[in-house]
Design a protein that fits this description.
Length: 265
């Protein structure tokens, strides 16, 4: 008589089996991220997540930026170099974070010194490699690839990661980066209501991104000074910033304070 073999289904909750394999260890990443932001005021969330991203992912630095009208407005940076890399992209109007925000999909520049990196972002790639950064990864907050918002949600901004060594993110690092971006998206979209003692999302975001207003105020003044459209005015602002080796925000502040003006050459 043949012996009947009973195959027990794998318990996916624990990763065990009938053979006594035992419970599988949970990935601690979500727990670490949760502990980092638990009880944190909304305005402090971006900085906390930048720090935890650098700690958990094999990268050199991280930034979080809002995006509006093609201009990234930095909310936080893990260090001065990461901050500078976002400023370079804002000044030039090119780079992985702008591409990710525009397309609503993650962008992985695995080697900025490669032919592809130089072709896609010629000046940013040159500037980044000059300061020792060889790879940049941008994950949208919301949008097609943000992983946290409802379907069709507009991209709010990007989580930008930088590394000195070229190469792709490993599978675990990629999952962690997407998880951090997802938590950030929820933090930006699901804030308490104003009557609960916290500003509503729209007002809170505008408060964090005060530089955004300076950029657009300066753009409007350049439009009036030159009689050009918004796109050309923004391009001229960026062009002067690049020529003077300054950030677009710095030049905008001078325009708003009437310390600088734009005239036809």
């Amino acid at each position: 008589m043949e012996e009947m073999v009973i195959v027990r289904p794998r318990d996916e909750r624990h990763g065990g089996s009938a053979g006594g394999e035992g419970p599988r260890q949970r990935d601690p990443t979500a727990r670490v991220i949760g502990e980092e932001v638990r009880g944190t005021r909304p305005a402090e969330v971006p900085g906390r997540l930048c720090a935890v991203a650098v700690r958990l992912v094999d990268v050199t630095g991280a930034t979080v930026s809002l995006h509006g009208g093609g201009m990234p407005v930095q909310l936080c940076a893990s260090d001065e170099l990461a901050e500078r890399l976002t400023e370079i992209q804002a000044t030039l109007g090119e780079g992985p974070c702008l591409s990710a925000a525009q397309d609503g999909a993650a962008v992985f520049a695995e080697d900025l010194a490669s032919e592809e990196g130089a072709r896609r972002w010629p000046v940013f790639a040159m500037e980044a490699t000059a300061v020792g950064i060889r790879a940049a990864y941008a994950v949208p907050l919301g949008g097609e690839d943000g992983g946290a918002g409802p379907e069709g949600q507009e991209c709010l901004g990007t989580l930008d990661l930088y590394r000195r060594e070229p190469g792709p993110l490993g599978a675990r690092d990629l999952r962690t980066a997407r998880l951090v971006a997802g938590v950030m998206t929820v933090a930006l979209m699901a804030l308490p209501r104003e009557e609960e003692g916290v500003l509503d999302p729209e007002r809170w975001l505008s408060g964090l991104a005060t530089e955004h207003d300076e950029i657009y105020q300066a753009t409007g003044m350049i439009m009036a000074q030159l009689g050009v459209g918004a796109d050309e005015a923004m391009a001229r602002l960026r062009g002067r910033a690049f020529a003077e080796e300054r950030t677009a925000v710095d030049v905008a502040r001078d325009v708003v304070a009437q310390r600088a003006r734009f005239d036809w050459d």
